[in-house]
Amino acid sequence: MENKTTINYNSYFAGCLSGISQTIVGHPLDTIKVWSQNGQLSHELKRISIRSLYSGISYPLISSGFLNCISFGVENTVKNNGYNNIESGVISGFAVGLLTAPIDYFKIQNQTHHRRFIESVKTINLSKLALGTTIMRESIGYGLYFPIYYELKDKTGSFISGGVAGIASWTFTYPLDTIKTRLQSGDYKNIIHLIKAGKIWEGYLPCIARAGLVNAIGWLVYEKILHQTTTTPTTH
Fold first, then answer.
1. What are the record keywords, sorted (predicted)?
2. How many CB atoms lie within 10 A of CB 25?
């Protein structure tokens, strides 16, 4: 008997547009979070501008649609083939983590050192990519994110449940995100050095403000587009 894999391609398309909308809305708060994590906030606030708040946006703007396409699409595909919300979330997070690490590296290099792509390429190495830390953050985060959203969706609607899911997943993974950001900034010799620097929760408030806002909007966009485009899933 032939095994059939059910794929709803509309979830990939809806995820793509959702990701772009999230980046446009949330990037300034992400920049403030990165400045805080690296101890640069007071310095950067002295010369803050719209341009500085949106520094590094080219990387996530180009990639956000693709990454959300992967995260929502993989989660939907895995779940449609017999896995529960936690399992499909973890698998989705693992896939996203592999792709997110290099993208985050170039973004953070631009945000913290104002380095262009070519300059960042010259300084890159495996330890600075923080691949393992990124995969761990994404797997845990998405393993919480999707189950929380689907648990609340029918009770509170997409906007509120999306915001709550985003805040909860980022709260649980924030220390990992700080470690990842510091590794990718290149300002610390090793992981022991950056942990000893303390202030692992530095930048948490702008992160949570961003998480609530962008995930509320992201899920609203995703559900509306999915509703408008959904047809009978294709089977192979």
1. Membrane, Mitochondrion, Repeat, Transmembrane, Transmembrane helix, Transport
2. 15
